[in-house]
Amino acid sequence: MRRGTRAGLAAAIVATGVLAGVGPASAQGTTVGGAGVQYYLNDSFSGKANIELVYGDHGDEVYVGDWDGNGTDTLLVRRGNTFHVRNSATSGPADTSFMYGDPGDTVLIGDWDGNGTDTLAVRRGNRFFVKNSVTTGRADTEFVYGDWGDTVLVGDWDGNRSDTLVVRRGGQYFVKNDLNTGVASSVFFYGDPGDVVLVGRWSNDQAGDSLGVRRGSTYFLRHSLTSGPADRVFGYGEPSDTAFTGDWNGDGIDTLGVRRVPPPPPNTAFGDGTHRTGGGGIVPGTYRSSPTDESCYWERLSGFGGTFDEIIANNFGGPDIVTIEATDAGFKSSRCGTWRPVAASYPPAPVTVFGAGMYQVGTHIAPGTYQSNADPDSCYWERLRGFSGEFSDLITNDFSTIVTIAPSDAGFSSARCGTWTRIG
């Protein structure tokens, strides 16, 4: 999904046919996949990134596109049916947000009308609902293609500057060059059925998009929609990275980016008791306690005289999260089990059902509106902007069983609330 001068028709084997069958899932034009907030982009087919950035939350659904029509691709994150757009390949907050579709929809990205801007399409089975602007509203085009279980790729296959679909079934690809209900325009084979497949315009000699396959950290790019060996082979990133493609510098050529989970934090765990901060004691940072049957109690300390004035902040909870500052003299806890860096407690993706305790929003739990199954008179919760334990980190609190947790909230804590379940 990049801009560039396009002409001609990409070659392909075999002609039209009725689509049938189901292939393994490996898609481009859908969510990037993977997890983590670190991104490494490369403007050339070399082994080292020249752009590094942080965006979104650990478990976000991430997409790539040219959202503002300036010729370069950037990132978008999805949370439910809300989309948060970043218009530069830099770290920072979203530049704009909008809503589209339903939270459970499968989303595709493409320049469907050839106007130079990527927008969304929603897929429901084999029916597609295309929106030609990054705004809330109804679809501009609807059509049917392929089968319910098909893997779908998005690209400008014929070089006419508009993106359309390809259905993948194993190593066979069925190309559709318009957004109409009907049969494939052409069919070809490339790679092996288990390959991870990427889409892009890899060379100025290409009219439109073609495919690349990934095997470990090696990439095999083909410059035409034809069967045959790769035209370019190179290595990039690590085998554990999640790879995607985009035009990061506006030169009309797609190159690689990877999404990476940061390495696990060093072994900085510690248990209950009184600890010095720094200088051979505990390392400053944000920590989460282990789940325990008893109430975890902790104190951040400015000194060790045992006076009330030396307590910077304290809390009862469990599991709990606390940020220990480098300026703290020490930290004390009891009945908290083991404290570990908060990143070590992240699930593979944010959950939408959870119990008592303190959670980081966007990593432990997904934002949204939740309802608990507890007595509203006893259920107490807090929305938080940080984890210092100080009053300034409290956004709001209440005794109730319904709460809306915003994507901008840092954390959420509750006690005596039973189970929270997202309802919107």
Write up this protein.
- It is a single chain.
- The protein is an all-beta fold and 424 residues long.
- It has two domains: 38-260, Tachylectin-2, Chain A (5 Propeller); 270-422, no CATH class.
- The protein has no helices and 34 strands.
- Residues 1-27 have low confidence and may be disordered.
Précis, in short:
The chain is mainly beta.
Per the CATH scheme, the topology name of the largest domain is: Tachylectin-2, Chain A
The low-pLDDT segments are 1-27
CATH class of the largest domain: Mainly Beta
| Structural Rg | 25 Å
State the share of residues found in helices, binned by percent.
Answer: under 10%
Q: What general form does the structure show?
A: elongated
Mean pLDDT: 86
The count of DSSP E runs of length 2 or more, i.e. the number of strands, is 34
Number of helix segments? 0
Biggest sheet record: 6 strands, antiparallel
Structural class: mainly beta
Count of discrete structural domains = 2
For the record, the CATH architecture of the largest domain stands as: 5 Propeller
Report strand %: 35-45%
